[in-house]
Amino acid sequence: MSFKEQLQTLRKSRGLSQEKLAEIMGISRQAVAKWEVGQSYPDIAKLIALSEFFNVSIDKLVNDYEENCHLSIESNKVNNINDDAIDFLLRAKKTTYAGNGSEVKASRPNSHDLEYVEGDFKYIDTYLGGKQFSGEEAIWNKNIPIWSMNYSGRVLDEAFSGKFLKEVLSLVSKENPYRGPIMYEKGQYQYHCIINGEFEWFQGYEEIYFNYNKVYECFFHGGKIK
């Protein structure tokens, strides 16, 4: 069942009008109407709210969401970039920040830099800040840049756990080689990540909840360098 069909079915099963569901979600009736005809799709915060209200797993909602708006969750088209580069990227990510790798000499004033080199490939992750941060990950092949990803995020609450974030980022996969998995849960922490696009050109958003309270968020985007 498509996302728009499932939403209509769930809404009607509760005997709700579009106006009433919009009121509950804190949005306009027009927004609900557009969801139900496939003209637009909810962001991750609204997906979480819908899953909690209708008591349907967010995984099921995300899968339907992926099917209809072509989110890159299980089937990212990575054939446009060398598989060796993707495999290298995964090892680099798991070895540097996610793997508690040591920082190298700062490339900019007060920047945090991590580097991983393997054969002709080089990976550099450089970022500024801490609780509110911005940075870039990039790959070079024979000193020629071939891929990069910019990111910017912030810690929203003291309940945030850097250890949990690193655990999540260490689970990066070839099917989804950006940040963490689409969903991950451990104890009272929940991680969600949405990707739109392909490895050549993409954007995404990740967030962490603690006891259903959002404690961290990060936006990212990037693609192949030509």
Task: Record keyword descriptors for this entry.
226 residues; alpha+beta; 434 Repressor (Amino-terminal Domain); 2 domains; 33% strand; elongated; DUF5680; DNA-binding
Describe the structure.
The protein is an alpha+beta fold. It folds into 2 domains: 3-69, 434 Repressor (Amino-terminal Domain) (Orthogonal Bundle); 83-224, no CATH class. The chain is 32% helix and 33% strand. The protein contains 7 helices and 8 strands; from the N terminus they run ααααααββββαββββ. It has helices spanning 3-13, 18-25, 29-37, 44-54, 58-69, 83-95, 162-169; strands at residues 112-118, 121-129, 132-141, 144-155, 183-186, 189-198, 201-210, 213-224. It has an 8-stranded antiparallel β-sheet, covered by helices on one side. Strand 1 and strand 2 form a beta hairpin. Helix 2 packs across helix 3. The radius of gyration is 19 Å and the shape is elongated. It starts with a helix and ends with a strand. Mean pLDDT is 88; it is low at 64-80. Keywords: DNA-binding. Residues 7-61 form the HTH cro/C1-type domain.
Q: Could you give a short description of this structure?
A:
The protein has helices at 3-13, 18-25, 29-37, 44-54, 58-69, 83-95, 162-169; strands at 112-118, 121-129, 132-141, 144-155, 183-186, 189-198, 201-210, 213-224.
Please specify the SSE layout and strand pairing.
Layout: H1 3-13, H2 18-25, H3 29-37, H4 44-54, H5 58-69, H6 83-95, E1 112-118, E2 121-129, E3 132-141, E4 144-155, H7 162-169, E5 183-186, E6 189-198, E7 201-210, E8 213-224
Helix pairs in contact: 2-3
Strand order of the largest sheet: 1-2-3-4-8-7-6-5
Q: What is the total domain count?
A: 2
Q: How many individual β-strands?
A: 8
Low-confidence stretches: 64-80
Count of runs of 4 or more consecutive helical residues:
7
Mean pLDDT: 88
Distance between the termini: 39 Å
Beta-sheet strand percentage? 25-35%
Query: Radius of gyration from the CA trace?
Result: 19 Å
The gross shape turns out to be elongated
Keywords: DNA-binding
InterPro entries: Cro/C1-type_HTH, DUF5680, Lambda_DNA-bd_dom_sf
Protein name: HTH cro/C1-type domain-containing protein
Domain HTH cro/C1-type: 7-61
